[in-house]
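Item description
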Amino acid sequence: MSRPFRSLGHWHKVATLAVIASLLCAVPLYRALDLQGSVLDVLRRGETAVDPLRTATDVQRGLVEHRGLAREVLRRAVPPEDASDAARRARAAVLDGDIARLHQDLARLAHAPAAAEAAALAAGWVQLDGRVRERRIDATGSDAAHALLLEQNLQVMDWVLQAAATPDRALPLTAVLPPVPRTVADADDARALAALQSWSVRLAAADAGLREARARVERDRRSMALACAALALAAALVAASLARHARAPAGRTAPSSRSDAPPQPPAAAADIPPRPAAELLLRRLREPAPPPGDAPAGRPGTGDIAARNDDAVR
């Protein structure tokens, strides 16, 4: 295993180690992406719940205001055609529109229990409005009927929160949205309207926070997805290069990693300066030896060697 790794080039080794380190980071990166996906799912579910909750809050406010107007009309025994009943009729018309918008929001949410509770709320409201308009109910009965409708609307809001909750309950939606006010039905009109106003402000702030958080998480997920794609591309390139290296002939080995400098080409023969003395010496040494009669036997004398050196130097 170590011999093929030693035969790799320097950049092959660095790239292989980088890919191994990237693979070690892949598991926590995948876990982070999965967690961000869960957070993004909660944020999207929260956004789908904001519109029905906002419309249900308008319905609550309309029921509280209509309760006070109906109580005043019924206690004074105002005739239905009297001008003082115009404010109640106008508020009832606005409440009709709020209940219709609630049905539309719940249809987009596609939650059957919430839609069924809203249908019961709408039927009860139509019946109560007719009884108040025709003066077939007194002020005490009107307050009780309004309280029942307020409780039904609270049940609709609970169903909306449950529909928007995550299936595994790992990240509850109550950590994102404010709690629903529960004392509206039993409180007096002023306190109930103040509680609903505070709830509306907190709901608007939660909606803005949801949108900002979702945009930030989506931006982070895009960055992490690009990083994963870059790691995958780098791993593929290194794998292809290593495969080409493994298929190369045995004689063509990669350059050693001990020296990063590229090999220099050998110098040309013309670049070597001439050496006349050395060439002359070699030429004299290559000459044939004189006949035995011309020179005494044995090794040449010192004078002959000196003479040859002088000639070579000249």
Residues 49-220 form one domain. The helical segments are 2-6, 10-76, 86-109, 112-133, 139-164, 189-247, 276-285, 302-313. Residues 10-76 form the longest helix (67 residues). Residues 253-261, 267-271 have pLDDT under 50 and may be disordered.
